């Protein structure tokens, strides 16, 4: 199972690298086209929007599983005590609930997008597929939030794990 998860993480990482590289290259070519030839890349905004969604939402489960969300260490000295593990689990459950709500809202948006045939402005890419991807990855991130390990702090790791 661990090998499957590692393979999935590497595959997702590759998708993220390729997506970001494509977005950078597209932006570079679009700016050159605008400045030098007075001709932008048709649909660059649509493509950039979709690549950004892929980058953010493909990375969301990885970020959640690695406990990489933004955190403030102002109270770590107090909060990283072994007796407060319940607090961290409560926060994990709250994060999972928020991510679950995001997944649910995108799931509802799939039907709405299909009902009104919502598409991107220039390239008419159907939005329902994007919403389905965002819903699925948010749901995976919600599940990952429930199974993350305890938070780590460089100076309190040994104390917290004891």
Topology:
Layout: H1 2-36, H2 44-65, H3 76-79, H4 85-115, H5 127-146, H6 157-161
Overall description:
By secondary structure, this protein is mainly α. The protein is built from 6 helices and no strands. Helix 1 runs antiparallel to helix 2, helix 2 runs parallel beside helix 5 (127-146) and helix 4 (85-115) packs antiparallel against helix 5. It is globular and about 65 Å long. The two termini are 27 Å apart. The mean pLDDT is 88.
What is shown here, in short?
Helix content is 72%, strand content 0%. The chain is built from six helices and no strands. With 162 residues, it is an all-alpha fold.
Calculate Rg over CA atoms.
20 Å
Runs with pLDDT <50, length 5+? Answer: none
Measured distance between first and last alpha carbons? 27 Å
The helix-strand sequence is HHHHHH
Mean pLDDT reading: 88
**Any idea what the shape is?**
globular
Can you summarize the main beta sheet?
none
How many helical stretches?
Answer: 6
Number of strands: 0
Helix content: over 70%
Strand content: under 5%
Based on helices, strands and strand pairing, what is the structural class?
A: mainly alpha
């Amino acid at each position: 199972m661990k090998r499957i998860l590692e393979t999935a993480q590497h595959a997702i990482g590759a998708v993220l690298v390729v997506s970001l590289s494509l977005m950078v290259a597209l932006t570079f070519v679009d700016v050159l086209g605008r400045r030098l030839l007075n001709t932008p890349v048709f649909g660059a905004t649509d493509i950039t929007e979709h690549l950004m969604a892929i980058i953010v939402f493909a990375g969301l489960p990885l970020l959640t599983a690695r406990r990489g969300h933004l955190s403030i260490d102002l109270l770590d000295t107090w909060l990283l005590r072994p007796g407060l593990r319940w607090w961290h689990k409560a926060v994990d459950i709250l994060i999972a609930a928020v991510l679950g709500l995001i997944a649910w809202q995108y799931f509802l948006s799939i039907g709405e997008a299909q009902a009104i045939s919502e598409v991107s402005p220039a390239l008419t890419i159907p939005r329902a597929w994007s919403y389905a991807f965002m819903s699925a990855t948010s749901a995976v991130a919600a599940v990952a939030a429930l199974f993350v390990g305890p938070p780590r702090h460089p100076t309190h790791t040994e104390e917290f794990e004891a």
